[in-house]
UniProtKB/TrEMBL annotation:
It comes from the Bacteria. One of its GO terms (cellular component) is plasma membrane. Residues 446-649 form the Peptidase M13 C-terminal domain. GO terms for molecular function: metal ion binding; metalloendopeptidase activity. It comes from Intrasporangium oryzae NRRL B-24470. This is Peptidase M13.
Length: 652
């Protein structure tokens, strides 16, 4: 049995007791350059590269297959990809594909026509003032409801509009807006760019910060449609909803995640000159579709959002961007082809065994946690018993046959796919919850936990080395995908997931005393990560412990429960030494090699502001909170990874 350790990546000059992440990944870090078309690079990116290449083969095979009739999944996939790769046609058309939308925006002369334009554009994929989605009602998870999220800005986060450290990016953003407007032949581009920035700055000032936005209770604000109108009476809500084609009654009840932003939106609608709104919406149409336009627009869009924001020198090859367009529009049609070719039944069986051991490890943990009382313990076990694992790919595939895909009409293909998805989601209102639906594609290298459905989802593409290897010993598999399963399960019991009960409803099922003890542990973790700086950055750039606390709880839970599950799995067989490492050592090495990666400086700084995950090196070294890690490698006081026992945070 092979160990599953990437031995060639080890840095033997570094002791694991001083820096596990560096010991496991150091040679790779020293010998690997971040590709020019990447802002960061690591395990996830390597697997995404492989997945993208596989998808490309499937797409190109579909494009070459003339046996499928018009509207068949293979023909749709092939024709959409062909429309993106036909650069001659794209250059020939220029801005013609956007003319109808831009002409629509040009007619805006009042708040009423602004609301109408926002509604029509929302349907085809231009999020304006509000981002919108449909999901289970978090207070009544057997019913669907519309969620409204603050929007209106083009920079990554509200802090970019106010924090002095982003002053240069703000200046570059205004210059970028001016250039893109100029490319489109919009007159007075410089003046309009300044006015657009002023409007977005006003909207950003009413945005909730990203730590507050993590709060499941604060962001659940159910409103009737009349109550939404009362919050922002200046905005013509009926027109907005009608023009987006929303079915009757679909907005009868909505969740307004940031009510104060909606109030500010109404005030801005009344106060801001309509010409500024028109310029702002023109910019957002151009920005939304720039990647589908002639090369001058593509390059200008990438120059700001790629080079300036993330430090990425080169754009991705066109075929990779074409794959992304197909996946974004009709992704499950590709996913079905991917799953058929690349996900063997044996992988699903092994994963089911892993999940069962992780669930049992959680059950045992709940029975012995000192901070969890009996009443909360019973509810936690009930929630654990009711969760649903989804592995590999959906049982029911989405039907895209009603979308017209024309190999000569790229922008039209994308807007029609956006309209299909918009209509599909709003049509859920009033229907039973579809528990077969997936919110990731099988070819996506990731996983998620959805609290309102109490489910964990593991797409096929993540179920490969170094996360999961059918031929490898259990240790690395449990340190990799096992800990990731534990991480996702742990989200059901983290600072926000724990606010949802076993049915998926927001419910205060913890006793006050248990919540207080849990919050105290979370606070210690926040304070710990607040002191950390990712490798290679100036110490002034620290992790936001409040933003990352949920993912950090997930990582610790994944490690602690994953290790317990590994012990369960090997109780009968034992833990042999392989490649010079004991079973427990290989478990923690498996964890650290999953987070192998590096970032460009600009991207590392950007991620500190917006990413709820800690940087990769700090995730790999989160093991310093785990006593079993100290025991496995005999870590001593004075070692770099040593953490005093009373400073270690153990939640599960």
């Amino acid at each position: 049995m092979k160990s599953g350790i990437e031995l060639e990546h080890l840095d033997r000059s570094t002791r694991p007791q001083d820096d596990l992440f560096r010991f496991v990944n150091g040679t790779w870090l020293d010998t690997t350059e971040i590709p020019a078309d990447r802002a960061r690079f690591g395990t996830f990116d390597l697997l995404r590269e492989e997945s993208t290449a596989r998808v490309r083969d499937l797409i190109e095979a579909a494009a070459a297959d003339t046996s499928g009739g018009a509207g068949s999944p293979k023909r749709q996939v092939g024709d959409l990809y062909a429309s993106f790769m036909d650069t001659d046609r794209i250059e020939e058309l220029g801005l013609v594909p956007l003319q109808a939308m831009l002409a629509d925006v040009a007619t805006i002369d009042s708040v009423e026509t602004l609301a109408a334009g926002l509604g029509r554009l929302q349907r085809v994929g231009v999020d304006g003032l509000l981002h919108q989605w449909v999901g289970p009602d978090e207070r009544s998870p057997e019913d669907y409801i519309v969620y409204l999220e603050q929007g209106g800005i083009g920079l990554p986060d509200e802090s970019y509009y106010r924090d002095e450290k982003y002053a240069e990016i703000r200046a570059a953003y205004v210059a970028h807006i001016e250039r893109l407007l100029g490319l489109a032949g919009i007159p007075d581009a410089a003046d309009k760019a300044s006015r657009i920035m002023a409007l977005e700055t006003r909207l950003a000032a009413s945005h909730w910060d990203n730590v507050t936005n993590r709060d499941a209770i604060k962001t659940y604000n159910a409103h009737t449609f009349d109550e939404v109108r009362a919050r922002a009476p200046q905005f013509p809500w009926e027109t907005y909803v009608s023009e987006m084609g929303a079915p009757s009654g679909s907005f009868a009840k909505v969740v307004v995640r940031q009510p104060s932003f909606v109030t500010a939106l109404g005030e801005a609608a009344a106060d801001v000159d309509v010409a500024d709104w028109q310029a702002w919406l023109t910019w957002h149409v151009l920005s939304r579709f720039a990647g589908l336009l002639p090369e001058a627009f593509v390059e200008e869009d990438f120059d700001f959002f790629g080079r300036t924001l993330s430090g990425q020198p080169d754009n991705k090859e066109r075929w990779k961007r074409g794959v992304a367009v197909v996946e974004g529009a009709i992704g499950e049609a590709v996913g079905r082809l991917y799953a058929e070719k690349w996900f063997p039944p044996a992988a699903k069986e092994r994963m089911q065994e892993l999940v069962a051991n992780l669930v049992e490890a959680f059950r045992r943990s709940f029975s012995s946690l000192e901070w969890m009382g009996e009443e909360t313990r019973a509810q936690a076990i009930d929630k654990l018993d009711r969760f649903t694992p989804k592995i590999g790919y959906p049982d029911v595939w989405r039907d895209y046959s009603s979308i017209e895909i024309d190999p000569a009409d790229l922008v039209g293909n994308v807007t029609r796919a956006n309209a299909f998805e918009h209509d599909r989601n709003l049509a859920k209102i009033g229907r039973p919850i579809d528990r077969t639906e997936w919110f990731m594609l099988p070819q996506t290298v990731n996983a998620y936990y959805m609290p309102s459905m109490n489910e964990i989802v593991f797409p096929a593409a993540i179920l490969q080395p170094p996360f999961f290897d059918l031929e490898a010993d259990d240790a690395v598999n449990y340190g990799g995908i096992g800990a990731v399963i534990g991480h996702e399960l742990g989200h059901g019991f983290d600072d926000q997931g724990s606010r949802y009960d076993g049915s998926g409803a927001l419910s205060d099922w913890w006793t006050a005393a248990d919540r207080e003890r849990f919050d105290a542990l979370s606070k210690r973790l926040i304070e710990q990560f607040d002191t950390y700086t990712p490798a290679g950055l100036d110490p002034s750039h620290t992790v936001n412990g409040g933003l990352t606390v949920g993912e950090n709880i997930g990582d610790l839970g994944g490690l602690q429960i994953g290790y317990s599950a590994y012990r369960i799995a090997t109780k009968a067989t034992g833990m042999p030494e392989i490649d010079g490492f004991t079973g427990p050592q290989r478990f923690f090495i498996g964890w650290a090699q999953v987070w192998k990666g590096k970032s460009r400086e600009a991207e590392a700084i950007r991620l500190l502001a917006v990413d709820p995950h800690a940087p990769q090196d700090l995730r790999g070294n989160a093991v310093r909170n785990v006593t079993e890690f100290h025991e496995a490698f005999e870590v001593k006081p004075g070692d770099g990874m040593w953490l005093d026992e009373d400073e270690r945070v153990r939640i599960f």
